Design the sequence.
């Protein structure tokens, strides 16, 4: 049973435009949601998080939106830059466990 | 420099030959975890540890063992590796508070091939 779903394996966005990565979850008991970014040959790095009691968190070019009624969160990157090309993992946590999605590969086109 | 160090980075072995992948962190983190990454499956948690001598199973623990005798080290042991354990492995660590444990620091990964 996949509790955290990223239904788009890949996404291509023009440089300077907005990138929107989506994530759905099934367990309403998750209390934190996170996004990690991964470059080839490196480990994932933490990007941004949001508590389940909030609906938006912003950090520079990155904003995460949480829609609890739809069990959906999204990551907005604006403006997109070439260095944003990477795999993005959505994750959700409760107590001591973190569950990751399968990842979405973002390509930023020149 | 704050980091999580995994060794080796690459390993080719044969079925049944016991191996250990080491993981060490220098940030005094209580929480440590092992993940495997497979194509189309994302990151899946194998085992985690909340502190010294405290370990627990993640989502895919079968075929793996861990130990946490010291705070900084969290080795992953494959007693009898099989080809389905061919994967990319990541160790991670974090503080253990409610929010901080979600902000995990990952090692660079160990690519394991079991023939």
Sequence:
């Amino acid at each position: 049973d996949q509790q955290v779903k990223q239904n788009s394996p890949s996404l291509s966005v023009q440089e300077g435009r907005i990138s929107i990565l989506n994530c759905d979850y099934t367990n309403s008991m998750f209390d934190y949601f996170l996004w990690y970014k991964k470059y080839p040959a490196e480990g994932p790095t933490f990007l941004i998080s949001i508590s389940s009691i909030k609906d938006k968190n912003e950090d520079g070019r990155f904003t995460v939106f949480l829609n609890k009624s739809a069990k959906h969160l999204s990551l907005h990157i604006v403006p997109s830059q070439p260095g944003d090309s990477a795999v993005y993992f959505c994750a959700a946590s409760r107590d001591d466990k973190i569950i990751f999605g399968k990842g979405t590969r973002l390509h930023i086109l020149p | 420099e704050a980091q999580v160090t995994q060794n080796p980075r690459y390993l080719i072995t044969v079925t049944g030959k016991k191996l250990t992948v080491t993981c060490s962190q220098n940030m005094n983190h209580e929480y440590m975890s092992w993940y495997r990454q497979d194509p189309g499956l994302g990151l899946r948690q194998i085992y985690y540890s909340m502190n010294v001598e405290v370990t627990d199973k993640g989502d895919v623990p079968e075929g793996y063992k861990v130990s946490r005798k010291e705070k900084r080290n969290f080795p992953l042991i494959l007693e009898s590796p099989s080809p389905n354990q061919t994967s990319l492995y990541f160790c991670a660590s974090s503080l253990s508070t409610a929010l901080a444990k979600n902000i995990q620091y990952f090692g660079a990964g160990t690519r394991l091939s079991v023939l």
Q: What stands out?
A: The interface with chain B takes residues 6, 31-32, 34, 41-46, 49, 51, 89, 91, 93, 96-103 of chain A (CB under 8 Å). The longest strand of chain A covers residues 86-94. Chain A has a mean pLDDT of 94. The two ends of chain A are 38 Å apart (CA to CA).
